[in-house]
């Protein structure tokens, strides 16, 4: 469909897709990604301003108007024939200048997506019927085999995106995947260590759980990052899944 990697963010209206992307994009930029965004809207939107020269020319009857300067340019095109296809819209992007295209909306098309879910919206989850959804951002625990993040876990979401993204010839390696999990047992602080082996699991509600591995009985499947101060059971800690586990 596109030479660019695509990652969609889909949800029912009012969930906060644009707000999350607005907060996530700077973190992805700090990780070295050059980003584009394609946003779908159902509204009769207009990015032009009445009274500006470009708007006057459109009002005069021009069906395509490009405004250009030394900093940026924009093409405004009327489409009375109907909405362009997703493939046609993707073709408008300069793939050579981008590492990842974030897509807001277009939830019925087939490409990898992250679902955003708020229980207060009162609409069903999308991921059970959409195999293209690879992760879930929700305000309540959900029974799901997918990686799940809270809306405020922006650093963890950014790390997930970088770990997922295939980037041949990338300028810097993607950081390892980090997830948040609820601690099940006291976490000791061995001197000189930044992390300890852990055993990661998931409860029936989809909440990630972790406990320090017992070296004589357990096979560790993650590393628990040691926080600055001791953590008690029930608190959330950052973990890094071990490859192949």
From TrEMBL:
<dbReference type="InterPro" id="IPR004435">
    <property type="entry name" value="MobB_dom"/>
</dbReference>
<dbReference type="InterPro" id="IPR027417">
    <property type="entry name" value="P-loop_NTPase"/>
</dbReference>
<dbReference type="InterPro" id="IPR052539">
    <property type="entry name" value="MGD_biosynthesis_adapter"/>
</dbReference>
<dbReference type="Pfam" id="PF03205">
    <property type="entry name" value="MobB"/>
</dbReference>
<feature type="domain" description="Molybdopterin-guanine dinucleotide biosynthesis protein B (MobB)">
    <location>
        <begin position="7"/>
        <end position="139"/>
    </location>
</feature>
<protein>
    <submittedName>
        <fullName>Molybdopterin-guanine dinucleotide biosynthesis protein B</fullName>
    </submittedName>
</protein>
């Amino acid at each position: 469909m596109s030479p660019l990697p695509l990652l969609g963010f889909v949800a029912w209206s009012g969930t906060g897709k644009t707000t999350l992307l607005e907060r996530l994009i700077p973190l992805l930029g700090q990780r070295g990604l050059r980003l584009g965004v394609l946003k779908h809207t159902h509204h009769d939107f207009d990015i032009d301003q009445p009274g500006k020269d470009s708007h006057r020319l459109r009002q005069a009857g021009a069906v395509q108007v490009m405004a250009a300067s030394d900093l940026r340019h924009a093409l405004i095109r009327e489409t009375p024939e109907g909405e362009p296809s997703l493939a046609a819209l993707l073709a408008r992007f300069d793939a050579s200048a981008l590492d990842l295209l974030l897509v807001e909306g277009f939830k019925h098309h087939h490409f990898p997506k992250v679902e955003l879910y708020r229980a207060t919206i009162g609409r069903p989850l999308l991921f059970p019927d959409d195999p293209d959804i690879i992760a879930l951002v929700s305000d309540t625990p959900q029974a799901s085999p997918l990686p799940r993040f809270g809306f405020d876990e922006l650093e963890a979401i950014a790390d997930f995106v970088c770990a997922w993204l295939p980037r041949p010839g990338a300028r810097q390696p993607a950081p390892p995947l980090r997830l948040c999990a609820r601690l099940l047992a006291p976490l000791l602080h061995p001197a000189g260590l930044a992390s300890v082996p852990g055993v990661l699991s998931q409860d029936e509600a989809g909440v990630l759980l972790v406990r320090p591995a017992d070296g004589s009985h357990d096979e560790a499947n993650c590393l628990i990052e040691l926080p600055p101060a001791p953590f008690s059971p029930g608190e959330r800690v950052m973990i890094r899944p071990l490859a192949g586990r």
